[in-house]
Write a structure and sequence with these properties.
Aspartate Aminotransferase, domain 1, 7-stranded antiparallel β-sheet, 7 strands
Amino acid sequence: MKHAGELGFRPSHATKGDLELVHQGRRQIVYLNRKRLVSQVIAVIVAPWSPVDELCGVPGVTFKGGYHHSSNMRTFPKRLNGGRDEIHYGYSVECADQTSFARLLDTI
């Protein structure tokens, strides 16, 4: 099983809630929701232009629907989400285990 570093993803920015992972060669960015790791869930936030249907075709990856919003996802676009200020957003997909996480990163 490969880990994020072996797949070319490197941490570039970390906050209490999110870890930004960047693939330098493909210029892809994903965020790992660190709050969900406490409950043993690997939640990965992908850009809103990501092909979610294709990513959910990866064994062990599921999508619950809707957007995930966080001011820490500094490279993603912003939109209004019920407040008066725009906030960064993306899609949250869940990986069943480390193997499905690696498959997801390899597919992005």
